Amino acid sequence: MKSNFDRMLSSEDVMRRRASFLQRIHVDGPLLVLLLTLAAGSLFVLYSASGKNWDLLLKQASSFGIGLVSMFVIAQLEPRFMARWVPLAYVVGVTLLVVVDIMGHNAMGRRAGSISPG
Fold first, then answer.
1. Could you tell me where the DSSP H helices lie in 9-78?
2. What is the model's pTM?
3. In the prediction, which pLDDT does 20 show?
4. Cα distance between residue 100 and residue 97, in whole Å
């Protein structure tokens, strides 16, 4: 009696096996569920801590939505493309941080881009 471990798959078996929706969009299901649960919990805490301020809640939820859509878009990129362009994006990001530190303006008594102690 053969076990399923060493069974050879025929080409028909491979063709019948279909990828799930999450596999087709290159997203890890348990990680997505964890992320959505954490986001929902944090939105409840924000709503409670802000004195039931709907404007702040909607602003944070829309920021989360933009991040989620960005995650889905980036997940569709080929790893070779990412390996080629991410170092350039990193250098651009660090350059923008330096520009903000140099050319930033004062806001609320502190210089924009500077880290306040404590």
1. 11-16, 21-24, 29-49, 54-75
2. 0.63
3. 87
4. 5
Ordered by start, the domain boundaries in the chain are 1-76, 78-118
d(CA 48, CA 80): 44
Residues 46-71 have pLDDT tens digits of: 999 999 999 999 999 999 999 999 99
Distances (CA, A) of 92 to 88, 95, 99, 102: 6, 5, 10, 15
- 105 confidence band (pLDDT: 50, 70, 90): confident
Rg (CA), the chain: 23
In angstroms, the CA 40 to CA 37 distance is 5
Res 19: pLDDT: 79
User: What's 110's DSSP letter?
Assistant: E
* Contact call for residues 35 and 28 (beta carbons, < 8 A): no
The span from the CA of 8 to the CA of 92, in Å, is 49
